[in-house]
Design brief:
Structural class: alpha/beta
Number of helices: 9
Strand content: 15-25%
Shape: globular
Number of strands: 17
Largest sheet: 8 strands, mixed
Distance between the termini: 57 Å
Number of domains: 2
Length: about 400
């Protein structure tokens, strides 16, 4: 019987980061299994934003860890991650958003995250397409940026392999093996593997897999998406990431054009039981519906981006993210079963939080505690839930709709 100290189910960005951080912290044996190719689902479709400013205080130290680990991974692998440190410009055009931004700035300073107040000239340089007349307050986080999330996942994998961790693709987990209230191992399409600790980091399938042993993980698959414009002189400069919570939108530079993300009022949510096993070729959007979503946002977006009606949107990319009803991630041990851990519900911030999530999970698993763990991450905080119930799914969708603004 093959034994590992730690087996991680899920070869996306979270599973890879957890493996890397455990391998840095100990000499324990580690196996990561993935039923498809590594980084083939959400980790390959992300906009790749790394943002340290957050309305959720618990996320800020996690995102800071991600910024810090990028240069470390480059040193350890000898490969450039091409992190575009453009900084992020956060904008507020209402009293509620101004108050929220002031609170975010204050919280960022507690965690020593650099933030400044840009003047009008700074803002024009960062976002030349922006109508500054609607902006009541702005903040700039200079160490924020973006990268290729697929490449970041593979850097975690390469660095973990260098430390002795093992990875196996196209190996499906079929059953969690429990002896009483203790993890014994896992059955796979290639036999049984035993372990002391089992970490579930399977993205949108985590709740489905955990349900096999009657463990309820309060997260559901919700659509995330963005549009890309063709290159354009008016708005295609190498500016900053912009976050516009008053209109639930963000932008970042993209090859001479803009990448635009929008959080609509009614986000599409899915029952994990009905998803295909391989999401690589799955589209959560039917036909041309996404153009209607973009058109519905035009009137509000045009307040900030007056030339949006003339923008040539050439591409659309969508995928699934795992959302919880309260918009907080799920991290830590499952109380009912000794040795079972979960990292789920990244709420569309998997790239930003990946370094922190890996760090926290390795601390909890190896040391039994973490200095940056928050009680808001507890898997048990929702009590008993049915992750496939219609009302529960609706609440998870609402969490994405209100991710960067209060609902009207």
């Amino acid at each position: 019987m093959i034994f590992y100290d730690h087996i991680i189910v899920g070869g996306g960005i979270l599973g890879a980061s957890i493996a890397y951080h455990i391998s840095k912290k100990s000499n324990d044996s580690i196996l990561v299994i993935e039923r498809n190719d590594f980084a083939s689902a959400a980790s390959s479709r992300s906009a790749g934003l790394v943002l340290q400013g957050s309305t959720k205080q618990s996320n800020i130290p996690l995102a800071k860890k991600t910024v810090e680990v990028i240069s470390t991974l480059e040193e350890e692998t000898g490969e450039n991650l091409e992190y575009h440190q453009t900084g992020s410009l956060r904008l507020a055009s209402s009293k509620a958003r101004v108050d929220e931004l002031n609170s975010m700035i204050e919280t960022a300073s507690i965690f020593d995250v650099e933030v400044s107040a840009p003047n009008d000239q700074d803002i024009k340089r960062m976002a030349p397409w922006l109508n500054q007349e609607v902006v009541q307050h702005a903040a700039f986080f200079p160490s924020d940026g973006y990268l290729d999330s697929y490449q970041l996942t593979w850097h975690y994998i390469k660095a973990a392999k260098n430390n002795g961790a093992q990875f196996s693709a196209n190996l499906g987990a079929t059953e969690i093996v429990v002896d009483g209230n203790k993890i014994q191992g896992i059955n796979t399409t290639n036999g049984k593997f035993c372990c002391s600790n089992l970490i579930l980091a399977g993205g949108v399938w985590t709740s489905l897999f955990a349900s096999k042993i009657n463990i309820a993980i309060a997260a559901a698959p919700v659509r995330s998406h963005y549009w890309l414009t063709a290159p354009d002189f008016d708005y295609g400069s190498e500016g900053s990431i912009t976050i516009m919570p008053d209109v639930s939108a963000y932008t970042r530079p993209e090859l001479g054009g803009l990448l635009l993300g929008v959080q609509e009022n009614e986000c599409a949510v899915f029952d994990a039981r009905k998803l295909p096993e391989d999401l690589q070729y799955f589209s959560p959007t039917l036909g041309e519906d996404h153009w209607d979503i973009l058109l519905d946002s035009y009137s509000e977006l045009s307040r900030f981006f007056p030339k949006i009606e003339n923008a040539n949107f050439s591409s659309y990319i969508s995928g699934l993210s795992s959302y919880t009803p309260d918009g907080e991630i799920i991290l830590g041990p499952i109380e009912e079963i000794d040795g079972l851990y979960v990292a789920a519900g990244d709420c569309g911030s998997g790239v930003s939080l990946s370094g922190g999530i890996g760090s926290v999970m390795s601390d909890l698993i190896v040391d039994g505690k973490s200095d940056i763990y928050s009680s808001s991450f507890r898997p048990s905080r929702f009590g008993k839930v049915d992750p496939f119930d219609g009302e529960f799914l609706k609440n998870c969708a609402m969490a994405r709709s209100s991710k960067s603004r209060k609902m009207k």
